[in-house]
Write a structure and sequence with these properties.
Length: 159
């Protein structure tokens, strides 16, 4: 789900297990979960406290582009931490864009795979199941097209 509040960029809600450590390497790495990501930052959940104002390295798993980004921790709300990316160059931004796109498509694909239990007779239930599946596939295509248009506008400086 794309959500835009008072933020610099639209965020994609996605849970990705990542490793985080102090950017200067002076400290232990820990495991956290992303909650949402945008081109300018992310929100994560951590059982261990992370100091607001600290600079951290975020290491994404290989199946999420194997990306490493540096971010400043700008806020804390309980076990949730808001981070803004720092010094992201064109290579990192392209990899981040691919990560966001992958997260978006994986989430939509999971929604399509969810099938309700039919409560009608077998013939009618199968027809209803196929109609619902087609409706979900159409929704995935529409949302994917909207995300592609958003991503294209952003790359062209329109967002």
């Amino acid at each position: 789900m794309l959500c835009k509040e008072q933020r610099k960029a639209a965020r994609t809600s996605v849970e990705i297990p990542i490793t985080v450590e102090p950017a200067d390497g002076a400290g232990e790495a820990g495991h956290v979960m992303t909650l949402d990501i945008s081109m300018s930052g992310l929100q994560l959940r951590s059982a261990s406290p992370i100091e607001v104002g600290s600079c951290i390295a975020l290491h994404f798993p290989k199946d999420w582009q194997g990306l490493t980004l540096i971010a400043n921790v700008v806020r804390r709300e309980g076990d949730r931490f808001g981070c803004e990316f720092k010094n992201t160059g064109p290579v990192e931004l392209e990899a981040l864009d691919k990560t966001l796109w992958l997260a978006h498509i994986k989430k939509l694909a999971d929604q399509v795979r969810e099938e309700p239990e039919p409560s009608l007779a077998i013939g009618e239930a199968e027809i209803l199941r196929r109609i619902r599946l087609l409706e979900r596939e159409l929704a995935v295509l529409k949302e994917s097209a909207a995300y592609l248009a958003f991503s294209k506008r952003r790359r062209q400086g329109g967002e």
